[in-house]
Design brief:
The protein has helices at about 5-15, 25-50, 55-70, 95; strands at about 20-25, 70-75. By secondary structure, the chain is mainly alpha-helical. It has a domain at about 1-5 and about 15-80. Strands 1-2 form a two-stranded parallel ribbon. α1 (about 5-15) packs across α2 and α2 (about 25-50) runs antiparallel to α3 (about 55-70). The chain is elongated. The mean pLDDT is about 95. The protein binds nicotinamide-adenine-dinucleotide. Nicotinamide-adenine-dinucleotide binds near residues 6, 33 and 89.
Length: about 100
């Protein structure tokens, strides 16, 4: 499965300790993004544990911290107060011009 740009951006920022709000157009897209990020974070940390570069406890703590930094909404109002907004919507000009990014 090819990663979606918004999921990559959200995951990397959350891993670096930033509070991230992922805004999607509907509940299904929101569930897809959340699920993909949870799976990806777990997979990366699982690999680190397997390779012996991280303990299981440290991986569990890191996963919990990353996921705690993430929240999702279908309401663009959730972006209010954000310091930075990254637009990563499908390559469709009619959709992009309506986005807040
Ligand atoms: N995927 C990559 O590796 C990658 C790399 C560089 C740049 N980009 C850029 O990132 C952007 C997104 O690419 P992608 O491959 O992740 O696209 P994608 O098709 O996987 O979708 C990206 C996002 O757009 C949302 N979306 C779809 N239809 C929508 C609609 N009608 N209204 C509002 N939101 C809608 C999806 O829910 C998803 O969150 C594009 O501009 C692309 O050029 C992607």
């Amino acid at each position: 499965m090819f990663p979606r740009a918004p999921d990559l951006v959200n995951q990397m920022a959350a891993e670096k300790g930033y509070k991230v709000v992922g805004v999607e157009s509907n509940d299904a897209a929101m569930a897809t993004g959340k699920g993909r990020i949870e799976k990806s974070v777990g997979m990366l940390l699982g690999k680190a544990v397997k390779k012996g570069t991280m303990t299981k406890d440290a991986a569990d703590a890191s996963q919990a911290a990353t996921l705690a930094n993430l929240s999702f909404s279908t309401d663009q109002g959730a972006l209010e107060g954000c310091d930075l907004v990254v637009e990563a919507i499908i390559e469709d000009i009619n959709v992009k011009v309506r986005s807040p990014g």
